[in-house]
Amino acid sequence: MSALFSLYKRLVKMITVHLPSWRLRVCLLRSAGYSIGNETYVGEELLIIDEPGDRRMVILGDRVSVAPRVTLVTSSYANFSKIRMTAGEKHEEVVIEDDAWLGTGVIVLPGIRIGARSVVAAGAVVTKDVAPGMIVAGIPAREVGTVVPSQEEVSFAPTV
Fold this sequence. Notes:
- The chain is α/β, with parallel strands linked by helices.
- The protein has helices spanning about 1-15, 20-30, 85, 150-155, and strands spanning about 35, 40, 45-50, 60, 65, 70-75, 75, 90, 95, 100, 105-110, 115, 120, 125, 135, 140-145.
- The strands form 4 sheets. It has a 6-stranded mixed β-sheet with strand order 2-5-10-13-15-16. It has a 4-stranded parallel β-sheet with strand order 1-4-9-12, covered by helices on one side. Strands 3-6-11-14 form a 4-stranded parallel β-sheet, with no helix packed on it.
- The longest helix is centred in the first third of the chain and has 15 residues, at about 1-15.
- The chain is globular.
- The relative contact order is 0.11.
- The model is unreliable at about 155-160 (pLDDT under 50).
C-alpha cells in the first residue's frame, strides 16, 4: 500500500503543477497527504521536495496565499555524494500558519515555521522561523517590517 501511495503522491505532484484551477490543486494535494486549511490559495508550479511516503510534512493553515513557483522543502540531503555522511540530512516539516502570504519564487527550507499574518517577499529563501506578523525578504530572508492589522481586524479584536 505504501508503494501505491508513493506513486499516487508523485502523480498528484506532477499533475497539480499546471492545473488551471487552484481549487483543484488544493483538493488533489490534500488527497496526497498534505495538510491544507480552508480558503488557502495554492499558485501554479508549487514544488514540494519531500520523501514519497511522507504525510503531513507540509502544513498550510487557513487563508494562506502561496504564489506561483514556491518551493517547500521538507527533506534535503546530498544523495550519492561522498559528503552525505558528514553534511548530514534534514527531514522536518514545514508549517505555514494562518493568513500568511508567500510571494512568487519563495523557497522554504526544512523545519521552518512561518507565523500567522506574515509576508515572505518574492524570491526570498527562508532559512529560519518567521515570527507572526513579520515581513521578511532576501537571501537569506531577514525581517524588513511588520504587518499592520487592517481596520477590520482591529475593530473585531477582543477587549481585555
